[in-house]
Structure formats: structure tokens, C-alpha cells
Specification:
Length: 332
């Protein structure tokens, strides 16, 4: 860095990001922000314990902005008391209300659909709904990861939000009856199982397909992706369940002005497209475009129910998973 640039960055100050997202995924965004503003960015990556870390640091915490995936972790930050409300006309204009906390404590930046991975060879269907996954025609053909995983609990919570607990309990019993095996592995593992013929359909997030398609380090993942197609559930009615990556303003942000500048930049269509390209997700701003790879899966119609409403049903969803014994595997 030249002395002139160093002085400029020093004058503009800095902003500290505590992140559950790997630094390499957000680096292109932060580099562009620094280029435009001169504000230096510092990233602390944590794979767990972010709320506990900020809580322990107390009023002297250097955290300015929290970046994370999953509505559960955004809610955890809010409920843990480590965020503060932010009212920004710029952010509210760029991010639709369904992807914002009603109290201004967190904001979504990109979405990922909880879709159905399906065998290209053995599943002729081109459309599907979550509800019809209990149809006996899918018996012994459905795979999934741990039913208590946050991604699945989010989907199940959306079922509670739309249909109520009693319906969802019976639906989960139907899902259990159609399982090919005990829930196991991660989303990529479900695509592998489909290629291996262990099952024909599975729950999975859209972005994993992009990651598999472009995985040069483990090229066998390209074969898993090539064996599967993406079906977007409920496109003719309420839409596909989505989760988010998002941001929040830290409670004791020491560089609040710079933090707000960063958050307003991240909310912009330009930044959302950079982010979405890198992580194979969808921008939340209407009109902002996903990457060509993600667009190749087909158009997504997101569920319009506010994520804050869905999140209220996560505890119920988790209890229902245990009640029906979903992680025990197929019903006899």
C-alpha cells in the first residue's frame, strides 16, 4: 500500500466484522467497499460462539458488524442482546420487508432455496410441492440430512407457519414413512446418494449445487451434481422456502458511522450481485441477478411469508421432529 493510500485509509478509519461466513466468501465485497470508501475492513471469523464472544467482550467489544448465514443465527444474535436497531432508508429501500427484522435488528442480503434434489434419470417430474412428499409413490425414495439441522428446521417451521402444528406433525410422519434410510450426511451427501441410487429425491439447499458444479479440488462432486436436477417446490402457490445470509449492527459498535456505511453498501444491488455470485445464492433485491450457474437451475419463486414469522415456529418444529422420531429413520 502506498503512503498516500495508507494515509487515506487511516483518515477514513476502519470497520470490524465478526463473521460466521468464511473470509474468502466476503473478501470481494469488502475489497470493493474499501476501494470505494477508503475504509479499512478487519474480519474475525468464528465457526461458533459469536454471540458468546461479543457478550464476553461487553461494552469494549470491537465488533461493528455481524455477518452470518441462517435466520436462526441472526435471531440468536438479536435474542442474545448483541445487536442494536438500525433505521436506514437506504437499506430499507434495497432489502424487502420480508427479509428484514421488524425491529431493525437484522437484514437479509442473499437467499438460498430449500429445494428438492431429484435424480435426472429416475424422476421424470418437473414440478413438486412439499406437501406431496408424503405421497406413497415416494416410499423408500427420499433422503435427508439430520432432521434437527437448522436448514431442515427452517423448512419444517415454514410448514408450521402455513399449515399449523397438527398438519405438520402428520406431514413429518409421512416424510418418515418415505425415507430410504436414516437421516445422515450433509446436503452434498444427499446428491451423492442420489447418484449412487440409494434414493431418488432429497432435501437440499440451492447453493450446494453451484459449489459441487465448480469444485475443482474434489471433481467427483461435479458428478454428483450432474446426476441431479433442482426442483423448486410450490411454484404454483405460496413459493419455495428460503433462508438467508444477513447482517446486523453490533450493540456496542465503536465505529458506528463506518459500520452503517458498510451495511448500506452491502444492501446495494451491486454488492448483492457480487456476494450472490461468490456464494451461489440469490440477491434479495428485486431485479438484482444471480450468477449464471444459479440462473441455470431455473427461476425461484420465494415464499412471501416474512422470515421473522417463520422463525417463531422453529421450537415447535424441533419438538415435532423428536415427537415423530424422524431421525430414527423409515417407519416400519
Amino acid at each position: 500500500m502506498s503512503a498516500l493510500l495508507a494515509t487515506s485509509a487511516l483518515a477514513a478509519g476502519e470497520v470490524n466484522i465478526y463473521s460466521y461466513r468464511q473470509p474468502e466468501l466476503i473478501k470481494p465485497l469488502l475489497d470493493e467497499f474499501t476501494k470505494e470508501t477508503g475504509i479499512a475492513t478487519n474480519v474475525l471469523f468464528l465457526d461458533k460462539g459469536l454471540v458468546e464472544r461479543i457478550t464476553a467482550e461487553g461494552a469494549n467489544s470491537p465488533a461493528d458488524v455481524i455477518m452470518t448465514i441462517d435466520i436462526a443465527r441472526l435471531m440468536e444474535a438479536k435474542d442474545g442482546g448483541v445487536t442494536q436497531p438500525l433505521s436506514s432508508e437506504i437499506i430499507n429501500k434495497d432489502i424487502p420487508a420480508q427479509y428484514r427484522d421488524p425491529d431493525g435488528q437484522w437484514f437479509g442480503l442473499t437467499t438460498r432455496g430449500r429445494v428438492i434434489y431429484a435424480s435426472k434419470d429416475r424422476v421424470p417430474e418437473t414440478a413438486i410441492t412439499y406437501e406431496e412428499l408424503t405421497d406413497p409413490k415416494w416410499k423408500g425414495r427420499l433422503c435427508m440430512r439430520d432432521a434437527q439441522h437448522s436448514y431442515n428446521i427452517g423448512l419444517f417451521a415454514s410448514m408450521v407457519a402455513h399449515h399449523g402444528a397438527e398438519y405438520t406433525e402428520n406431514w413429518l410422519k409421512g416424510i418418515k414413512a418415505n425415507l430410504a434410510r436414516k437421516p445422515d450426511g450433509n446436503d452434498r451427501g444427499q446428491a451423492k446418494a442420489i447418484m449412487a441410487g440409494e434414493c431418488d429425491i432429497a432435501f437440499g439447499n440451492t447453493y450446494y449445487v453451484g459449489l459441487m458444479m465448480t469444485n475443482e479440488k474434489d471433481p467427483e462432486e461435479k458428478e454428483w451434481a450432474a446426476a441431479t436436477k433442482v426442483l423448486f417446490p410450490n411454484v404454483t402457490d405460496r413459493g419455495t422456502h428460503v433462508n438467508i445470509s444477513g447482517m446486523a449492527l453490533a450493540k456496542n459498535s465503536p465505529n458506528k458511522d463506518n459500520a452503517v456505511k458498510l451495511m448500506e453498501f452491502l444492501a446495494s444491488g451491486k454488492a448483492q450481485e457480487i456476494y450472490a455470485e461468490k456464494v451461489f445464492e440469490y440477491p434479495v433485491m428485486p431485479g438484482a441477478k444471480p450468477s449464471e450457474i444459479v440462473a441455470s437451475f431455473g427461476a425461484i419463486k420465494p415464499d412471501t411469508l416474512p422470515l421473522a414469522e417463520i422463525a417463531k415456529n422453529r421450537k415447535t418444529a424441533s419438538e415435532l421432529v423428536d415427537k415423530v422420531g424422524l431421525n430414527d429413520g423409515p417407519s416400519q
